[in-house]
Design goal:
- The complex is a heterodimer.
- By secondary structure, chain A is mainly α.
- Chain A folds into two domains: 1-32; 40-253, MetI-like fold (Orthogonal Bundle), CATH 1.10.3720.
- Chain A has helices at residues 2-29, 41-51, 62-93, 95-108, 117-124, 128-152, 156-164, 169-206, 212-221, 225-253.
- In chain A, α2 packs across α10 (225-253), α3 (62-93) runs parallel beside α6 (128-152) and α5 packs across α6 (128-152).
- The two termini of chain A are 14 Å apart.
- Chain B is an all-alpha fold.
- Chain B folds into two domains: 10-42; 50-260, MetI-like fold (Orthogonal Bundle).
- Chain B has ten helices and no strands.
- Chain B has helices spanning 10-35, 45-54, 65-96, 98-111, 120-127, 131-155, 159-167, 172-209, 215-224, 228-256.
- The chains are: A mainly alpha, B mainly alpha.
- At the A-B interface, α1, α4, α5, α6 and α8 of A face α1, α4, α5, α6 and α8 of B.
Amino acid sequence: MKEKKLKYTLISVASIAAFLSVWYLVTDVFHIFPSSTFPSPVKVAQAFIRKLTVKTPDGGTLATHLAASLKVALYGYLLGIGIGVPLGILMGWFRKVDLIVKPIFDLVRPIPPVGWIPLMILWLGIGMRAKATVIFVSAVTPSIINAYTGIKQTNSVHIWVARTFGAKSLETLIKVGIPSALPMIFAGLKVSLGASWMALVAAEMLASTEGLGYMIQMNRMVGKADNIMVGMITIGLVGAMLTWILEKLENKLVKGGRTK
Amino acid sequence: MRKKIRFQNTKAETAVYFCASLTGLLLIWYLAVRYTNLNKVMPSPFEVFAFVGSSFVKNIGSRILPFHILASLKRVFVGYFLACIIGIPLGIIMGCSRTGKAVIKPIFELLRPIPGLAWIPLAILWFGIGESSKYFIICVSAIVSIILNSYSGASQVDPILTGAAKMLGARPIQIFFYITLPSSVPQIFAGLQVGLSSSWMAVIAAEMIRASEGAGWIITTGMESGNTVQILSGMISIGLVGLLLASLLRLMERGLCAWNIQGK
């Protein structure tokens, strides 16, 4: 068993190495793509180190942009899941709530969070509040959908058993519905996180004076592809870190139902 | 005696609640605009509907509203289709084969956390400001959830089922087609739903940043001229088209995996 695991780890390492070396080969070695638009991994790494201290051309170091983005994103995200998950659970469990909320939700949901940006900028300016609201909208949708689907997919036999043993609807929801929906809910939280992070980038690209999205947008205007990639990688890394924290939490909270 | 409305079937009930809740929403909106000072920043719903109606004959910018929507839809379909034909097989391979997972997952995990919209600056540098950069952005945005859900669907197959099939002498290919694929279809569809709304969002974002037509363009120009009516009209039509797309997909889901539609 241990040997097998080692084999798959080796394959993974080889896969990443192949990816990086192909990237390196097509850029720095064979010059298939010009380095001004497609810099090599080495150039990106250099730009990354430079960006830690240098403020040009977008008026901030990597750390200041990152801090600005994180603050807005977490604010909107926590608000979004705090409202979205309970609402989704209620919609999945109580038919009346479903019937009343679903039409409105279905109408508002298809409006992409990004589509709210112009309205929010007009209403709230280009500051923190507009961005946080856009992120809230983007975080709330997946958490509602997944909590809803998770509850809907509750095994009816489990519900019947609970009912047979005299559990009230609310008790069944708390003891059967929610635990069995938890994996789905956590999947939703992860999608929400991705969506908020994405909405943040969009909001910052359109209207902002700081943040990672602003940084990559400014660097496009001056044509510095290496800095764009630094920004994208940072966005990716931080997003992955947040997801990792969420996964740790999931492993703590979700019992059973997982085959690993 | 207490009167109680009895519904013949659940469809009628759904329709009644649908109308009631939408009317309620409109009423609140209308009253709020009419009687509070919200009307400084928000037009009444009827103004917006009138604008949407008139835009079917009157140009916004260079063309009428349906053509703006069609321009956006065309971009979505190309990008989304690409994402589906790449994403679903990749996800299933990752879910079924450990070797496939070992090869694909690390690279996927490297690229996945980068949001689709963060590719916009790079896509513009690479493909210019034309259509192909938009296809690329839409594909990248949609593909993540498609891969992720196909993967989790294929890997969360009940081991008892595969075990039973193995014990009864099924070959791997049979297990794949009779167990893995059918039992991951609901998850795949969840991914397709999220993917479709991501690609609809991506097209809006891409058009907001660089375009001369399309639904995203309508709302950005509305913002630039401070025209809330146009923004809201744009948002409503974006929402309606999104709703239409989601319902189409749900209809398909109903056809393809009827066993998952219990009590929906």
